[in-house]
Amino acid sequence: MGCYEKVLDKITMTEQRAKERKALWHAVSSSFGREGAEGISNELTAETERLRESFDVLLAKLNDML
Amino acid sequence: MFQLTRLRICGFRGFAGAQELDFGQPVVLLCGENHRGKSSTLNAVEWCLFGGSCVGKKTGIRERIDWEVSNRYASSEGTFVEAEFKGSEGNYVVKRELTGAGRRASERTTVKLPDGAQLEGDDADRQIYALFRSSFQDFMTTVYQHQEAIRAVLTQEPRDRNDAIDRLLGLSEYRELVRGITDAKTGAAYKAMQNEFGNFRQRAEQSVRIYDKEAREKKEKAIADGMGEEHITEMDALARAERIGAAIISLARELGITDLQITVPRDLGQVAQFRDEAKDKIDAVWLESPDMVKQTTLERKQRELTSLVEKYQDVKKAEAEAKVERDEFVKRHGDEATLAKAVEAKQQEMRRIREEIHKSNARASLVREAVQYLKDVASDNQRRQCPLCGTEAPELLNQLQSEWEEKIEIDVRALEAERKQQQTELEQLVSSGDQLEKLEQALAAAHSCTKACETDAAAALQREIANDDDPLALLNRELQAIGSELGSQKKAIEKKGEKRIAIFEQLAKLRTIDEILGLQRKKEIVERIWSTNEYKELDELMDKASEFIEDVQAIKGSLATASREEAEAKISAAGTSLEKYFCRIANHPTITGLAMDVREDPRTGFNSYSIIGNDGSDPIPILSQGDLNCLALSLFFGLADAAEETQPFAFLMLDDPSQSLGPEMEQRFVSVLEDIAERRQLFISTPYAGFKNLLISSITKSKDVYDFLDWTKDNGPRIVRNA
Predict the structure, then answer these.
(1) Which of A3, B27, B172, B460 stands the most exposed, by the fewest C-beta atoms within 10 Å?
(2) Long-range contacts: B253-262, Cβ < 8 Å, 24+?
């Protein structure tokens, strides 16, 4: 059993957010296959930045209400 | 199990043109200096089987980053490796070619089966996997001992050694995956968002408290100042504003302005603007009303005349002082005519003295000429005798000349002294004249100022001021009249002023109500933030971010656990062999047994390995470079042994395995190889002639010895086979 399957097994062992984690693991391992560790870092950073951008927009609106 | 029987290499790594090597013997030695193509030969087997999987960062081998597969001077035949494997069913020929270059490079695989059939592309790749059932990681761990793996274990840095052992165990992929996740710093980004969100909530709660406190304090003060609590409402504020508007219009009418308009607020939001407008309009109405205009005019006139009085007093005083000074000077030194007369007299006296000096000088010259004449006309005897008494007087003429010159000199000196005295007195008189002139000028200027001030007073009073008029008295009389008129005027507008003040008081109350209601409204707005869509969305976003971070951590944790479990399984499988090989090769005097343990580093998520001696202590600090080399080889042999039963490959490849071994260790290592050679075909590369000779002389199995001699860019290595 390869690394991908082993990690997938561990993820699905816990029911909590198994579907989302499987999808994330798939995205992480695909990025790794394409660009190595840097690819993973870029993939996760991009997701974090997407959250951060939405966060900044909403927080700015709330700050205006203060 | 498959034996490697033949290898054909072209344009791969250190090979330029095509070369073929046959491996018919149980032991194959690849010998030669560095950069001759030994490692390229072993790498060629790996690339032929696994292609791109053994290239680049993902391999976990630093040397494989930016690894060039094609030789820079490859011949026109291109880049390919062909390997022949002998199995129980016959021979399989695997060939991998690289076509194109850079990003367009692609691999093409073919497999020739024992029955002569040939598979290509994906079919060929599937056949390779079906035959050998190995990944690159498996091959690297149990078949091919890389020289880089030994070099990495030799480091004394625990972190690097853990990395190297991971690589030896074929777990680099896990390590790289964990590193990629860690490098993204998702946790730090979420923490920053959490902090900012927390700060925002804190500020919002603080704002509610501050608005509430300020509103309560203002309300308490307003009630203490007499405002009823029932008046602090929006309705009351609007009604009050309407009353204020009406009062301002009424006041304006009283002041003579009939066209004033004011906008009354319809809701609380317009009250602040109304207050500003009301204040501006009251000020404007007040200042523009006829009574106020008259009062302002009188006040301005009063200020103007007061200033003129002060100025006139000042110039008059200055003129009087200038006159006194001039008069006292005249008293001491005389007037202009007296001084001019005295100067004339002094100048006359000076002329007389100069004439006297001139006469004396003429007399002296005459005496000198007369004596010289007598000296010239008199005989020697006459010169020596007195012409009156005839007595002997040898220096008579000289003495006479000297006496006369002395007398004249005394006269001249006295005259010179007198001239100097007269000169000094003359200069004093001239100076006094100059001073008097300046004093006269100052007096004239002061007088001119007084006249100018009188002209200003005439203009201010709008009448002529005759010479016998006292301007000061005239100004004071006018001031008195203005003061009286101002008094009457102020009394006249006092009542209207009271109304104005009353409006201002109402405005102040309106302001207080507006501020209290404004603070209460602000508090309500902030309190409503918690139920806004934006806040709900942000709250949901934070939950989403938290879940994302948890997912990332869960994957990182799963990777760490899977990596650790695999490491534990491999170490457990290789454990006995590891200890056996290490003790046998290293023969360390104090380490007679060792075991390896793995734990997860909770901080990094990486595997952390520890070596435990049979006495329970950590032997690493006392291990030499040679011992660490033995440890790396033992781990490899241990893993190879563990996989032997299921291993499809009947050979092991060792690249420069003796790099840090001493002569005795080399002997013991070779005896281990002798044992392994009984079970497996061995491929050993070495740059050391001594180790080569030791292998040739000590290993009893038949050997193929390939010497890698010169290397040229056109042909690659020159390889000579010695039986």
Answers:
(1) B460
(2) B254/B496, B254/B499, B255/B285, B255/B286, B255/B288, B255/B289, B255/B290, B255/B291, B255/B292, B255/B496, B256/B289, B256/B290, B256/B291, B257/B285, B257/B288, B257/B289, B260/B285
Task: Say if residues B40 and B72 touch (Cβ distance below 8 Å).
Answer: no
CB under 8 Å to B430, separation ≥6 — which residues?
A: B343
Scanning B530-624, the segments in alpha helix (DSSP H) are: 533-586
Which helix (H) or strand (E) is B401 found in, with range?
Answer: helix B396-461
Chain A CB within 8 Å of residue B101 CB = no
Which ipTM was obtained for this model? 0.96
Is the pLDDT reported for residue B620 higher than 90?
no
The Cα angle at residue B637 between residues B636 and B643, in degrees rounded to 5 = 95
List of chain A residues whose C-beta atoms are within 8 Å of the C-beta of residue B196: 55, 59
Say if A45 is an interface residue toward chain B (CB within 8 Å): yes
Residue of B nearest to A20 (CA): B551
Structure tokens at A56: 């900044």
Q: Is A27 on the interface with B (CB under 8 A)?
A: no
Q: Token digits for B388?
A: 């009156």
Measured between CB atoms, does A38 come within 8 Å of chain B? yes
CATH class of B1-143+647-723: alpha beta
Strand order of the sheet with strand B681-686?
B144-145, B651-655, B681-686, B27-31, B703-712, B716-722
| Tokens encoding B408 | 């004249």
Give the separation between CA B367 and CA B495, rounded to whole angstroms: 113
**pLDDT at residue number B698:** 94
Nearest residue in A to B525, CA atom: A65
Residue B723 has pLDDT above 70, yes or no: no
Distance between CA B364 and CA B368 in Å, rounded? 6
Residues B401-449: tens digit of each pLDDT: 888 888 888 988 999 999 999 999 999 999 999 999 999 999 999 999 9
Are B56 and A31 within 8 A, CB to CB? no
The answer to whether A60 contacts chain B (CB < 8 Å) is no
CB atoms within 10 A of CB B115: 7
Q: Judge whether residue B342 has pLDDT over 80.
A: yes
Ramachandran region, residue B271 (left: φ > 0; alpha: ψ -120 to 50; beta: rest): alpha
B360-402 confidence digits (pLDDT tens): 888 888 888 888 888 888 777 777 777 778 788 778 778 888 8
Site of tokens 């004449």: B373
Query: Picking from B103-117, B380-394, B708-722, which range would have the lowest pLDDT averaged per residue?
Result: B380-394
A36 touches chain B (CB under 8 A): yes
Q: Do B267 and B422 touch, CB atoms closer than 8 A?
A: no
The CATH architecture assigned to B295-469 reads Orthogonal Bundle (1.10)
pLDDT cut 70: percent of chain B above it: 99
Which helix (H) or strand (E) segment is B46 a member of? helix B38-50
pLDDT of B438-483, one tens digit each?
999 999 999 999 999 999 999 999 999 998 999 999 999 999 999 9
**Gap from A41 CA to chain B (nearest CA, Å):** 4
Count of H-run helices and E-run strands, chain A: 2, 0
A52–B535 C-beta distance less than 8 A = no
- The model's pLDDT over B30-88, given as tens digits with 9 standing for 90+, comes to 999 999 999 999 999 999 999 988 888 777 777 788 888 988 887 778 899 999 999 99
Find tokens 């367009």 and name the residue.
Answer: B104
> Do the domains B1-143+647-723 and B295-469 sit in the same CATH topology, yes or no?
no
List of chain B residues whose C-beta atoms are within 8 Å of the C-beta of residue A37: 57, 176-177, 179-180, 183
pLDDT at B351 over 70: yes
> Tokens at residue B62, please?
């630093």
